[in-house]
Amino acid sequence: MTTRLPFFVYGTLRPGEHNHDLFLRGRTESEEPARMRGLVLYEGPGYPYAVEAADGVVTGEVVMAHPEAYDELLRALDRLEDYTPGDPRNLYERVDREVTRADGTVLRAWVYVAASAVAARLRAHGELIESGDWRSPRFI
C-alpha cells in the first residue's frame, strides 16, 4: 500500500499547463505554490525533468488530492510519467521528498524525478533550466 502524500508538480501538471486539466481538474482539494530543494530542472522534449542535486531548488505547486480520487489519480500519474515500481526502464521514479509551501510550512510529497540512467544523460548533455522554474523564460 502506498502512503497517501500530496504531489509536487513542476511541469505540464501545473495549473494552466496542458496536463493539468487532463489529470488534476476535479480531483484536487487544493493546489498551492511551493518549492522543493535538492532538485534541478532540465529541459525535455516538451516537458521538464527534475534531477536530484544537492544545491538546486525547483518551483512548482503542491497538490492535495480529494481522498476519494487519490488512488485513481496516483495510477493515472504513474502512467503519465511512465513509472512502474521497480522497472529499470522507467523514465521517472516517484519518490517522497520535503516540499515547502509559500507560507513556509514543510511537508512530504510525491515527486517524479528522472530515473538514474535518464538523470546521467541529462547531467552530461541536457539543457539546464537555471531558474528552477519551467515557466520562466528558458531561452534568452
From TrEMBL:
Enzyme Commission code: 2.3.2.-
Record keyword DNA damage present: no
Xref: Gene3D superfamilies: Gamma-glutamyl cyclotransferase-like (3.10.490.10)
Keywords: Acyltransferase, Transferase
Pfam families attached to this UniProt entry: GGACT
Molecular function via GO: acyltransferase activity
Entries under InterPro entries matching the protein: AIG2-like_dom, GGCT-like, GGCT-like_sf
Domain called Gamma-glutamylcyclotransferase AIG2-like: residue spans: 7-135
Transferase listed as a keyword: yes
Root EC class: transferase
Domain of life: Bacteria
Full protein name: Gamma-glutamylcyclotransferase family protein
Native species: Streptomyces bluensis
